[in-house]
Design brief:
The structure is a single chain. By secondary structure, the chain is α/β, with parallel strands linked by helices. The protein has one domain. The chain has eleven helices and nine strands. Strands 5-6-7 form a three-stranded parallel β-sheet. Strands 1-2 form a two-stranded antiparallel ribbon. The chain has a two-stranded antiparallel ribbon with strand order 3-4.
Length: 311
C-alpha cells in the first residue's frame, strides 16, 4: 500500500512546526493517547508533540488503515475510534448538499455497489444562491479523526487513493471544485480557495489524528493547486495555509470544549483556602483545561468555541 502520510517529505516537513501548533494554548498539541508511550517520555499522553522527536521516528505517524490490527482494536476499545468509509461520507455529504441546493445528484450519483458517478457538467446554483455563498458556508466535522468528511484524498477504510480530485467527495473538496469551475484568474482562484479552507472546520481529541487531519487538508490544497496551475505553491503560501489549517482543525475534548486532559475548566472559579493564602496544592499537578479557541476569518477575530454554542 502506498504511504499515505509522510511527515519527512515536502510539503509537510516544511511546515511541520506550524501543523503541530495549538492555537488555544499557544503551545503544541499533545498526544492525548497512550498508543506511543513505548517510545519514551516524549510520547506519553500529556506531552506536547515535538517536531524534532517526530522526525527521528517518521514512520510512527500513520493513518488508521496502516496501523497494526492490534493498535486499531486498542484505539477502538479505548476511544471508540471507528472511521467512516468514503461511500458513507459521500452519502451523508450528498444529503447535506441536497438540502442546500434543493435537488439531488449535484456532485455525483451513488450506485448500489457503493461507488459513485461524478457529475461532469458545471454545477448550477438555485435562484437567490450564488457559488460564493456555497464556498463561504461554514462546515464542521466533529470528532473528525483523519477528516474524511472534509477531504477525501484516500478512503480511510481501505487506504485507496481517490484520484483525480474531481472524484473526491469531501465537503472541502466540493467547495474547491466550485472554485475551479467559477474562477478564471490565479488571483480569483487563490482568493476563493483560501476562503473555502477558512469555512471548513474540524476538531479531534487524539493528537496524532489532529496532525494527520491537518496534513490531509494541506496535501489537498497542494493537489488542487498543482492540478489547476501545474506548479507548486511558494513557501510563503504554504506557511499561510498551514497556519489557517492549524486554526481550523483543532484539538478538543468534545464533551468539555477544552484542550484534552486538563482539570475541568471553571469560568467563574470559587476560591479555595489554597487560593486565598497563595498555597499550591502539591497533590495536584494537573493544569487547568484551556477552553478551545477558533478563528472567524470573516470578522478576523478568535473566540471560544463554547461561546459559539451559546449563541
Amino acid at each position: 500500500m502506498e504511504k499515505l502520510i509522510d511527515i519527512s517529505s515536502y510539503p509537510v516537513a516544511n511546515v511541520l512546526d506550524l501543523l503541530l501548533q495549538d492555537k488555544s494554548t499557544k503551545k503544541n498539541i499533545i498526544w492525548a493517547t497512550d498508543t506511543y508511550e513505548e517510545y519514551g517520555e516524549g510520547f506519553t499522553d500529556k506531552v506536547q508533540m515535538d517536531a524534532n522527536a517526530l522526525l527521528r521516528r517518521t514512520d510512527i505517524i500513520r493513518p488508521r488503515i496502516q496501523k497494526s490490527l492490534e493498535a486499531q482494536a486498542q484505539r477502538t476499545r479505548k476511544k471508540a475510534e471507528v472511521f467512516t468509509p468514503a461511500w458513507l461520507c459521500n452519502r451523508m455529504n450528498n444529503h447535506c448538499d441536497e438540502d442546500w441546493f434543493g435537488r439531488t445528484g449535484i456532485f455525483n450519483t451513488e450506485n448500489e455497489d457503493h461507488t459513485w458517478i461524478v457529475t461532469e457538467r458545471k454545477i448550477e446554483f438555485p435562484k437567490r444562491k450564488k457559488w460564493q455563498h456555497y464556498v463561504d458556508s461554514r462546515r464542521l466535522e466533529i470528532t473528525c479523526g483523519e477528516a474524511p468528511y472534509l477531504v477525501s484524498r484516500y478512503d480511510v477504510s481501505t487506504g485507496e487513493l481517490i484520484v483525480p480530485p474531481i472524484r473526491r467527495i469531501g465537503m472541502l473538496d466540493r467547495k474547491l471544485r466550485i472554485v475551479n469551475e467559477n474562477t478564471d484568474t490565479y488571483e480569483d482562484w487563490l482568493k476563493w480557495a483560501i476562503r473555502a479552507f477558512e469555512a471548513s472546520y474540524g476538531y479531534e481529541y487524539q493528537g496524532d489524528n489532529v496532525l494527520i487531519a491537518r496534513i490531509n487538508l494541506l496535501l489537498t490544497f497542494l493537489d488542487y493547486y498543482d492540478e489547476r496551475w501545474e506548479r507548486l505553491p511558494d513557501e510563503k503560501l504554504l506557511q499561510q495555509m498551514a497556519n489557517k489549517i492549524a486554526w481550523n482543525i483543532w484539538q478538543m475534548d468534545g464533551l468539555k470544549d477544552t484542550v484534552p486532559l486538563g482539570k475541568p475548566y471553571e469560568e467563574y472559579k470559587q476560591m479555595s483556602l489554597f487560593d486565598i493564602f497563595g498555597i499550591e496544592d502539591e497533590n495536584d499537578d494537573t493544569p487547568e483545561a484551556v477552553p478551545c479557541r477558533i478563528f472567524n476569518w470573516r470578522s478576523n477575530a478568535s473566540l471560544k468555541f463554547m461561546d459559539i454554542k451559546e449563541m
